[in-house]
Amino acid sequence: MNNCAFTICAKNYIGLAKILEQSLKLYDPDIDFKIIIADEIQETNLIPENAFIAKNILPINSTLWQEMTFKYNLTEFCTAIKPFSFKYLFDKFKYEKIIYLDPDILVYSSINDIINKLDNYNIILTPHIVNFYFKYTGELEEKSYLNSGVFNLGFLALHDGKETNKFLSWWSERLIKFCYNEILDAYFTDQKWMDLIPCFFDSEKLFICRHPGYNIAPWNFFEREIFIENGEYRVRERNKYNNQHSFPIIFVHYSGFNYMQLLSGNVHHKNINSDFNYSDIQLLFEYYQKYLIQNKEYFEKYISLNYDYNYFDNNKPILMFHRRLFRGLLNKGEIIAEPFKTDNGSFYSILLKKKLILHDIKIEKITRYSINNIGKKLNFINKIFHLIFKLVGLKKFILFIKVLKLYSRFENQIYLINKKYIKNNLLGKNEY
After folding, report:
1. Is the pLDDT reported for residue 158 higher than 70?
2. Residues of the domain holding 410
3. Dist. CA 85–CA 38, nearest whole Å
């Protein structure tokens, strides 16, 4: 068989990637498995035999590499190199069929059905949800699917060929420049671009997999009930009036969880404020916990490793604020060579001079939901806004609010770096 599954991760997720491989090989030992490591590892003994350092293999020149690794955060960058990784594996190893899986996925049964379907299709995708609901009950806000896209790109299966190569070239060009997680631009890393795929591939080449056993994840727990029958993990529609049919679970996507907490049996999601109060879903957490415990030493060896591209070369942290300022300057045609450098004349030295460097990076993890005394702070801000309204009147106040939305974007604060942008600081229609 000339088929492959692969994942992309920073080095701290290598342990998760190996657990994914272990679960895959249990059911499909003949499928090759590769790991693309997005950042760098100095200790070569930490690099698994089937892993590759992305910088060493992907066709991205050093200047573009520095630009992408600086302007994108970890998630954005790992997803930005996905089409390049597909291209590399197709070209280098001459695989006929390749399946991408996120490193935080666990395989529950054979993926051979996907492989077989690639005999007839160029591309296979899975939607976030597979049913519509007049009364929506999901933990994730329903509008979130409009922001994140129709399909979840934790899974993607491709068959090599002319049409696929054309698609990968198109996709890679977009992700070089537009792989941001930015709602105001309608970007969600590599994912939202897939909403266009049904425009490019007809039903003879594109297969949308609605099998509920594929890509079970926090965003669809509410619609899929888990149970065990004759030792097999299965899934059916949670609606008790329409759950006569059940399906084997193929793979579960444990996206967004704290994996150190899962190792201890505690379920904590980083983005969804929910306890997932479904007794059946606990079966999935317990199953993953077993894998984490069995691979505890290996998992813990990697999980605490730092992502290289989170730091300047003096080990000072790079904030999202810095990355977005960099993007704003790129949009204005500024050329910033070697942005990770900290010597005289560097981007870092400019930030430092303008007092735009923070030593306390806790600000990165604070959200509007976790700000201390948020009610008191909002009360103060609302009083200021009320005063502005009294001073300028309704018409100017409405215009002020419209413009203010643009100023919530870090990119538009580039006047803090160079005063020449005080009159021209906003991202234009050809934003970078």
Report:
1. yes
2. 311-421
3. 10
Residue 21, C-beta contacts closer than 8 angstroms, at least 6 positions apart = 33, 35, 50
- Cα dihedral across residues 397, 398, 399, 404: positive or negative: positive
Q: Is the pLDDT of residue 429 over 60?
A: no
427 assigned to some structural domain: no
Calpha distance 187→147 (Å, rounded): 8
4: nearest Cα among 72, 114, 107, 97: 97
- Predicted TM-score (pTM) of the model is 0.93
Q: What is the DSSP string of 226-283?
A: EEEETTEEEEEES-TTS---EEE--EEE-TTB-HHHHHTT---BSS-------TTTHH
With tokens 């409009």, the residue in question is 146
CB 375 within 8 A of CB 291: no
Range of weakest confidence among 162-171, 193-202, 364-373: 364-373
Task: Note whether 207 and 130 are same-domain residues.
Answer: yes
For residues 99 and 49, membership in a common domain is answered with yes
Both tokens of residue 284?
């999935």
Kindly report, residue by residue over 255-303, the tens digit of the pLDDT.
999 999 999 888 888 877 667 778 999 999 999 999 999 999 999 999 9
The pLDDT of residue 425 is: 83
Query: Residue 230: inside a domain, yes or no?
Result: yes
Q: Assess whether pLDDT exceeds 70 at residue 130.
A: yes
What residues contact 123, with CB distance under 8 A and at least 6 apart?
156, 157, 158, 159, 164, 167, 197, 201, 205, 206, 207
Which amino acid, one-letter code, is at 9? C
Report pLDDT for 427.
Answer: 66
